[in-house]
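Deliverable D5.2: sample structural annotation.
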Amino acid sequence: MALNPRMDIADEMIACLREAVGEANKTKQHAQRLIGQYVERMANGSLEPKDRDFLDALCQRQPKKEDNCRDSDGDDDEPGSWQFLAAFLRYIYSGNYPTDRGVGKLVIGFIGRLQELGMHTPLRERDVIRQSTPFRPGDLVRSVSVQLAVELKKLYRDGVVKLQNQFKDQQKGGRAKVDGSDLDIRSELTAVENFLIFNKMSGNKWKIAPLSTAANGFVSFSESEIVSLCWKRELLKNRILQIVRMTFSSCNSQDDVTRNWLPDKEPEFLLRRLIADVGPIGLTALNRRDVGRRIFNLGDIVPTEYIDA
């Protein structure tokens, strides 16, 4: 890996990314703890009708049989869950409440429910002026929000299908201790509720809290998100503007960089000039347009010791 000759820029960039990765993982772990504690309370009899809205937001229900033509192990998108979790993680990181509409309204309700259960104390009241943070919350937590949505789906929605299949296999072998009618996944219940029922039948062998494995320590950011993460560090901001103004002299803002300049550059163009020459060169204009968002795994850019949370 050939670091940029401006070692002060490279060092500052590594420090910025290391801090961002640490904050993103810390935010995700905090959310996991709260969600795990919440699910445990639901398993222990604290569930109220309103909780089903929150459980559905955390993990969408199992599709009905007539709609369930997909492999349950597939990585299909869960836009509702991801949007809810992204808003929740933005709140956890910043302490700023979301707007009181749409998904934000549901997140505010969930925060209130956690307070009712004595599991969470907000950093500040809802009517307090929004506080600034070192990183823009949405750019910081997008990647870990997607990770968490996938983890919850695999644990609860896919997990209940795996438990159901285990019981059915036991039935065929004459080893099942439950009646066949007990093995239906009930569409009127949330994915979490169905999972808890089947897990209890199995002797509570599965964990019910979403805990990350060692493989979940990475965080990926798009190039535009990396610009955002760097923007409040004057050394990096000035260096970015210096690079951009070589071909875009009127560039003055972050939006100028990410919306007007960056889309026309080949993948990793800016990263190579800030930290390391690790990307492909010589792409055609058509190749550049086809690349899209250009997501980076930080393990490809920053030495491993700088990305472990």
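Annotation notes: The first helix runs from residue 7 to 46. The chain has eleven helices and two strands.
The annotation will be released with the project's public dataset once the embargo ends.
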